[in-house]
Each structure stands twice: as structure tokens, then as C-alpha cells.
Design a protein that fits this description.
This protein is mostly beta strands. The protein has no helices and 30 strands. The strands form 7 sheets. It has a 5-stranded antiparallel beta sheet, with no helix packed on it. A hairpin with a 4-residue loop joins strand 4 and strand 5.
Length: 332
């Protein structure tokens, strides 16, 4: 295992900005896409659906209308790579411009000036104790609501095949059922048990070291979506690679999601979306109505509706097919 290095703590001094509701011309045309690229989705406790985009900030659908929030409206960044909600109903966003908190009226934006290790945020998760873990292009910060504490991970290698990369980028963070924290990096998966770090990589059987997403399913298996070698599953002893033998095509897998029924979902660049019910992998692509070949996120809302986000915007499941949702709908 790799020992952790003690690092200094910074007290945050961020200021709140009133959320401005300014009419957005992009929402005026009902036949236009919600955004060119939707990369994160969250349905909050109050029933609002949040859509994190790749250049339009965040969009909120309250069941009646769409509202856009970007820099002009006091939001912290234009690209949103993480959305989570805390126990008090505050919604937090990891963006290209830092960490943003929304309390229903105000945005509070945090950057390096407040102690964040870097403002270019790529992953976000609350652990079971309420600590917010923030993965950035330059490593990890922990936030307890008052101060940021840097969390040291080993330097890996920058990926020259990606548009944005670094030796310390953290693509995903997950807490498992035992309380261990998992980090998806360019050096495989790092696991923190509260005292020390362990690493899973290609030397252990991982399909590739560039890990975009990690998921523990309800059976205790760990799934890894990699950027250059598809998806693999680990039962704690053996890695199983998911590929053509299982009917799964492609190599660039962006995310993993388990729905309430226990199905595991993942998108693969160029080949749509796959689901696994424990026995069979099913595919959703153009024949099922999925127009986009570049889906990045899959999400089940509080009402059981399944959503897809990626290039060409927002999609949702309807029956056995997929429909595209534009500014004017169709909404469920």
C-alpha cells in the first residue's frame, strides 16, 4: 500500500451570488436541443431535474419550464462534470470553473482561493459521513462544509489520446459498501480504506488503466468503465472482460449506473447504451430510437424514469424505445 502524505488545510472564503433568472434565447425554440451536450443528470428532493452541460452551464427543469444558469446568472462554470445533493437539499456542482453550491436562492462558488486544489473539477461525491470529495485535474480535495483538505494520490501518467488530461486527474470517485473510497485515474483504481491506499491496474487484470467510472453493484461486484478497453467486472479475485463474446462492441466507455431493478448500464462510444440484468446484455442504439452515438451519462429519476445524456442533448426511455427530448419535450 501507499502511505498518504499530510498536507495543509485551507479555510474557504467563498461568497454567495443570487441566482439570476435571465431569459435564455437557447430555450426559446421548442424544436431546438436542450444543449449540444448533456453530461450529468440529477433529480433533486424538490422534484427539479438538473442537466449539466458541456458548455451551457446547468439547466433546470421544474416540470413546467427550463431555466439556464451559467456565468451570467452567477453559476460557477460552463462545463458540468458532477452533480450531487446533500442531506439538507443543497445541490452541488463540479464544473470547469470550480465547485458550486445552490441552496435554492443563491449560488456559492469555490475555487483555489478557498482551498480547492484546482478549479477544473471532474468528479464529485458525498461519502456516508457527509464529506464531499472533489476530483480535479490536479488531484482530490475533501470538503467538510467549512474547509478544504487536500487528499494526496500518486501521480500517474497524462493520457495523450484525450483532449483534456494530466498526471493527477481524477475521473471518478465512489464509496463502496464497506466505506472504502475508490478513485478512477489514469493509473487504474486507487482504494483508500481510511488509513492507506491500494491500487488495481492492468497488472492485476484490469482491462486498461484509464478508468472513467467505477461501480459496486448490489451483489458486491466492482465494474470499471475504461477509456481505451471497454468495461470489465471484478468479483474481488478475478477480472471478467465484457466484449464481443457477450455481445458488447466498442472500447470507449464513459460511465456506469445501476438502476433500482439491479440492472447495470453503461454507454460505449459509437455503439449506444448497454444494460445487463445479470444474464443478458441488451443494446439500445439507432434501431431503438437513440439518435446519438455518444452518450455519456445514464440516470434513473425519483419517479423511475430512465434518462440518457450526451451529444445531441437529452434522451429518455419510453416503452422499449428511446425518444429525444428537445426544449419543447416530449416530457414524461
Amino acid at each position: 500500500s501507499i502511505c498518504l502524505l499530510a498536507m495543509m488545510v485551507s479555510i474557504c472564503t467563498a461568497h454567495m451570488v443570487p441566482a439570476q433568472h435571465i431569459p435564455n434565447p437557447k430555450a426559446a425554440d421548442p424544436e431546438a436541443p436542450i444543449s449540444e451536450f448533456v453530461r450529468r443528470i440529477l433529480h433533486d428532493q424538490s422534484g427539479d431535474l438538473w442537466l449539466g452541460t458541456n458548455g451551457d452551464g446547468v439547466i433546470r427543469f421544474d416540470g413546467d419550464r427550463l431555466e439556464h444558469f451559467s456565468l451570467t446568472e452567477g453559476f460557477g462554470g460552463v462545463a458540468v462534470r458532477g452533480i450531487v445533493e446533500d442531506n439538507q437539499g443543497n445541490v452541488w456542482f463540479g464544473t470547469s470553473g470550480g465547485l458550486t453550491k445552490y441552496n435554492g436562492k443563491f449560488f456559492t462558488n469555490y475555487t483555489e482561493a478557498d482551498g480547492l486544489v484546482d478549479r477544473d473539477v471532474w468528479s464529485l461525491v458525498f461519502d456516508s459521513e457527509g464529506t464531499l470529495w472533489i476530483g480535479t485535474i490536479q488531484g482530490v480535495s475533501r470538503f467538510d462544509g467549512q474547509k478544504f483538505t487536500p487528499f494526496d494520490l500518486p501521480e500517474t501518467e497524462s493520457d495523450p489520446l484525450r483532449g483534456v488530461s494530466s498526471a493527477r486527474i481524477v475521473h471518478s470517485i465512489m464509496e463502496d459498501s464497506a466505506g472504502k473510497m475508490w478513485f478512477g485515474t489514469n493509473g487504474g483504481a486507487f482504494i483508500y480504506d481510511g488509513e492507506s491506499l491500494a491500487n488495481l491496474s492492468v497488472k492485476d487484470g484490469l482491462s486498461h488503466n484509464a478508468v472513467n467510472s467505477i461501480l459496486e453493484d448490489r451483489s458486491g461486484n466492482f465494474w470499471f468503465a475504461t477509456h481505451h478497453a471497454g468495461v470489465c467486472r471484478w468479483d474481488g479475485k478475478t477480472f471478467t472482460h465484457v466484449g464481443l463474446e457477450q455481445g458488447v462492441e466498442g472500447i470507449e466507455a464513459w460511465s456506469l449506473y445501476e438502476d433500482r431493478a439491479g440492472k447495470v448500464w453503461f454507454p460505449v462510444e459509437g455503439f449506444g447504451v448497454y444494460s445487463y440484468d445479470g444474464q443478458v446484455f441488451a443494446n439500445y442504439a439507432k434501431p431503438q430510437g437513440l439518435a446519438s452515438h455518444a452518450i455519456q451519462c445514464i440516470y434513473e429519476d425519483r419517479d423511475g424514469q430512465m434518462w440518457l445524456g450526451g451529444w445531441m442533448g437529452l434522451f429518455r426511455f419510453e416503452g422499449d424505445g428511446v425518444v429525444r427530448v428537445l426544449n419543447g419535450g416530449p416530457w414524461p
